[in-house]
Every structure is written in C-alpha cells, then in structure tokens.
Amino acid sequence: MADDKNLSDDLEDMIGDVKEGAKKAADKAGHFADDAKEKASDFAEEAKEAAKDFANDAKEVLSDGKNVAIISHLWLIGWIIALVMNNGDKKSEYGSFYIRQMLGLGIFSLLLGFIPVVGWPIFLIFAVLWLMSFIGSFSGEKKLTPILGEYFQDWFKSL
C-alpha cells in the first residue's frame, strides 16, 4: 500500500509539473503572439506608408511631360501610350510637343520609305531625325525636327 501511496504522490507531482509547464508554455505563447501582433501592426503601418510614397511618386512621374515625350519615341505603341497618358487634365505642353513631332516623323517615314531606290536613304535620314528628337526629349528642351518640325507642330496642333 505504501508503494501505491508513493506512486500516487509521484503521479500528482508529475501532473503538477505538467500543469506548471503548460502554464509557462501558454504564457510564452501569449507573449509570442503579442510580439507577433505588434510586429505585424508595425509592418502594416510601414507598408501603408511605403504604398502611399509609391503612389505619390507614380503620380509625379506620370504628370511629368518628359516621360510622355520619351515614351512617344517608342514607335507606334509608345506613341499611342504617350497620347493616352497626355490626355485630359494631365496634358502637358512638353509631352504634346513631342507627340506631334513623332506623329509627323512616323507618317513621313512611312509614306516616303516605300519609294523605290530612295526609300533606304530616306529611312536613314528619318532614323537620324528620330535619334535627334529622342535625345532632345531627354534634355528637357523642345527641339524641333529640322526642316519639318514647325510644320508638324502646326498640322497636329490639336494633339
């Protein structure tokens, strides 16, 4: 019987130790959960701030006519994208200037490029004019395409 009593006491001690260990583990888990909740909240705040900064930067970039001017030089699809970007209340004179220049260069190079014998030299001339315009759009200055630039601005002034 004494062995049963010692065994019972040992069992009760073990159960007490297990309960105490479970309480400690629950406390640790609670502290860990609180820390994780706090870190998640801090991360969410930082993410919101970063998203807000990114949105402001994106608005600034899209409102800049220089970007529209550069994009308008990326052949037909770039010209269409620049035209859409430069539409409505976001319209900038700088972007419109290069949209008109590129429309004129594109039309002339397409029409004159198919003329037999002189098509290749004309294409090369227009490639040089395109490169000059592209460099001008990076510089931030409105540089007219030689010879035809003033006409492009006049003919396509509605853009």
List the helices and strands and how they pair.
Layout: H1 2-63, H2 65-71, H3 75-85, H4 93-112, H5 119-139, H6 149-155
Helix pairs in contact: 2-3, 2-4, 3-4, 4-5, 4-6
Give a quick precis of the structure:
The chain has 159 residues and is mostly helical. Helices cover 81% and strands 0% of the residues.
Describe the protein in words.
With 159 residues, this protein is mostly helical. It folds into two domains: 1-63; 65-155, no CATH class. Helix content is 81%, strand content 0%. It contains six helices and no strands. The protein is rod-shaped, with a radius of gyration of 35 Å. The N and C termini lie far apart (104 Å). The model has no long low-confidence stretch (mean pLDDT 83).
Order of helices and strands: HHHHHH
Q: Please bin the fraction of helical residues.
A: over 70%
Quick one: overall form?
rod-shaped
Compute the number of structural domains: 2
- The Rg value, from CA coordinates, equals 35 Å
Largest sheet: none
User: What is the typical, i.e. mean, pLDDT?
Assistant: 83
N/C terminus separation: 104 Å
Strand fraction = under 5%
Derived structural class: mainly alpha
Give a count of the beta strands, DSSP E runs of length 2 or more.
0
Low-confidence stretches: none
Separate helix tally: 6
